[in-house]
């Protein structure tokens, strides 16, 4: 009993550690004082002004567009690659996986710098496209690593059964394989989207002077003080995702309950 | 334990189909074509380019001077400090994450995704903002000191010290230690643990001889995933270190900011030596990258 | 075999949530006995084994080992060892290290451990496998290593949880003989869990048939097969015709309106009973020579014998015979009196779980 208490206490402490800064940021979004350091009373002013602030809305727009596009393209390229890697023999497979691991394990600063140098060497103007390409590059591995385990669990004979029943390979892929690996594909997309949204370092090096994402905009404000509208925007984004995940989890839980009942029988 | 045995360590096989190559799709390898082109274009060639810049001067002659810059006392100090702080952060992350992963594994929450969610969710608050929020907690008139004041305790000065940077690193990278360890722990067959108990091992012996060795691939993944970003960060040190603490990441970023690309690339190559060492160690333990997520 | 009670399970009850897995189970196991817990999945046999091994604690009741209550003793302090269903070998250790695991913990000398490894590998016919890794072995070999790893600790009891379940038929049969040989060489008690009746009949000294958390019957393989105590046992062990009957008087039973002579007594007069007749105990004869007449409705060749269904008295009788009677043949059914097994009808659901004293 005592042990159980300590375990819960420990988990609670870690969760507090992870979420304390988030609570502070949410509080700051309601702080009527412009200064981060003191509490000036409750206000909703920053939420109203947020939508009038063109530079923040622009940065938000750029961030979301890049996150959606990079996640989408990475999901397509990555899922195709995962299927291919899964059907490869041992040696090419090991090589592919090793190269896939490079952007995941390499330091962001090195990835960012190397991509920037490439764009510069090719006389490619830094801007939206260079950021998008960079985000796709670091997103693909997340998709591959999410899809691979699902492919390994796949019963190899269902695909053959589909062919046996007269399906073309393409039809069999969309009707048999894709539905089975879809949860992995979705996880991959979700992870890629999150990583893109949260990235600062690689964007910092590849964005050029013309555009800003939320991350790079925040970084330019670190010294002179963050605009409170940013806290409001982050709070909105965080709460949206939180609600979304709670809904998804509820649905899954209902399904899971059904499953556990069946497995008990 | 003999090295050979360590290398043989695998996470227990999942009870699914044995065929490693999945569905027999002879034409599937063409699906990797776009990815291979992409990898060569945006992973391999950029690395070649950074080598080129790192090993040449601005008039394209070969030089080792850019790399030798690391011996400059200021840069050397920055590298040394980055190594120290990232090592300490990695150790702290490991010490915090392993018990947490054990508890989460024991709790047998059947929704694996719920745990992943709890740990990934903070990423939806921008990482710069979350780090900035630590200023509020740590600064002279911040939350910790307000609480200490309230209880009439002496205040602490953490902000702009190495401790603040370590805290920032641990905060930002802890999830990358928890997830891989948790992922290998849930794959350990309960009967393997029962077998150890059955053969006379007590709780501690079971942990040291069975659970720990079997979870090693996850631990190694976690160490790499925390150590590399900690070693190379310039953001955390900028936000939580004021201007007082300069890490190697800050030096490199500064070189690029002032347009000194060759010097910056040279120093990046030095950094890559450390990254390569960690990657080599990781790939020995976890060939499939299966425990990363 | 001595009459010494080595393990005694007293009033064991165990449930998971609302699901009662074991309900007031009583069972003792003697020294040097090969006991098999047999039953369909979910009958509580594995839970019983895990309670003996110490991996589960019963909600109620006691586990007595050599006269001492060990209900709360953790598995690592029990003098029993387990062979797990999927072997549960330590994949990060060599075969030798796997086998040495328990001995190292007991701080045995290096020379002793080396001797034991050699001895155990020889015993399971895998000499020279010391430095192999578990995942380079076949399923059957891994199984033998799991057994070797358990027996080097010289347990008083070896618990085996469906150890042959993952092996293919031929290997399974070979391993059955191996296990009998091992048991005789080691001279220790085996408690074996399986759902495979053939395995149970081949290897056991004593079979404990379980269903839904209750013991249905305890007996030697011959007793279980020839004299099933109730319809469940009769149905689960081998194939059988279970027919409704009325005990007219001692040694005479009425089935479908026809009187059959049997050997059972003591059921009272005009009492409804279940009658069990094994398919191989039915003789097909000329129509006029049988007790009842019928027509062959299906015929399947099974290798050793033919399996036929005979329609007689509005019932399909299952018959095994080496003689062939084509479909449509009129036959007579003959059963020897001692091949007819009479059982009391269960009066209620609970009654089906009879209390059995050995």
Automatic annotation (TrEMBL), chain A:
- Supply the Pfam families for this chain: BPD_transp_1
Tell me the membrane topology, using the record's own terms: Multi-pass membrane protein
User: GO cellular component annotations, sorted alphabetically?
Assistant: plasma membrane
Per the annotation, which location comes first and is thus the protein's main one?
membrane
Tell me the superkingdom of the source.
Answer: Bacteria
| Protein transport listed as a keyword | no
Q: Does the keyword Transmembrane feature in the UniProt annotation?
A: yes
Q: Where is this chain's protein located in or outside the cell? A: Cell membrane
Tell me which UniProt keywords the record has, alphabetically.
Cell membrane, Membrane, Transmembrane, Transmembrane helix, Transport
TM annotation in the entry: 9-30, 59-85, 97-122, 128-149, 170-193, 230-248
Question: Which part of the chain is the ABC transmembrane type-1 domain?
Answer: 60-248
Q: Which family does it belong to?
A: Belongs to the binding-protein-dependent transport system permease family. CysTW subfamily.
Protein name, as recorded: Putative membrane protein
Q: Which organism is it from?
A: Herbinix hemicellulosilytica
From TrEMBL, chain B:
* Keyword terms, alphabetized: Cell membrane, Membrane, Transmembrane, Transmembrane helix, Transport
Q: Which domain of life is it from?
A: Bacteria
What Pfam families is this protein classified in?
A: BPD_transp_1
Any one GO biological process = transmembrane transport
Q: Main site of residence?
A: membrane
Q: Where are the stretches annotated Disordered?
A: 1-24
Q: Transmembrane ranges?
A: 35-55, 82-101, 113-133, 163-185, 206-228, 234-252, 264-283
Basic residues: which segments have biased composition?
Answer: 1-11
- For the ABC transmembrane type-1 domain, which residue ranges apply? 79-282
Q: Which family does it belong to?
A: Belongs to the binding-protein-dependent transport system permease family. CysTW subfamily.
This protein's name? Putative membrane protein
Which species does the entry assign this protein to? Answer: Herbinix hemicellulosilytica
Automatic annotation (TrEMBL), chain C:
Cleavable signal peptide: none
**Which InterPro entries does this UniProt record tie to the protein?**
AAA+_ATPase, ABC_SmlMolc_Importer, ABC_transporter-like_ATP-bd, ABC_transporter-like_CS, Mo/tungstate-bd_C_term_dom, P-loop_NTPase, PotA-like, PotA_ATP-bd
Give the species this sequence originates from. Herbinix hemicellulosilytica
- What sort of enzyme, by top EC class, is this? translocase
Q: What does the record give as EC number?
A: 7.6.2.11
Query: PANTHER family in the record, alphabetically?
Result: SPERMIDINE/PUTRESCINE IMPORT ATP-BINDING PROTEIN POTA, SPERMIDINE_PUTRESCINE IMPORT ATP-BINDING PROTEIN POTA
Record key words, sorted: ATP-binding, Cell membrane, Hydrolase, Membrane, Nucleotide-binding, Translocase, Transport
Assigned GO CC terms: ATP-binding cassette (ABC) transporter complex
What GO molecular function annotation could you give as one example from this UniProt entry? ATP hydrolysis activity
What gene is it encoded by? potA
Its name, as the record gives it, is: Spermidine/putrescine import ATP-binding protein PotA
Lineage of the organism: Bacteria, Bacillati, Bacillota, Clostridia, Lachnospirales
The segment(s) forming the ABC transporter domain are 7-237
Q: Which family does it belong to?
A: Belongs to the ABC transporter superfamily. Spermidine/putrescine importer (TC 3.A.1.11.1) family.
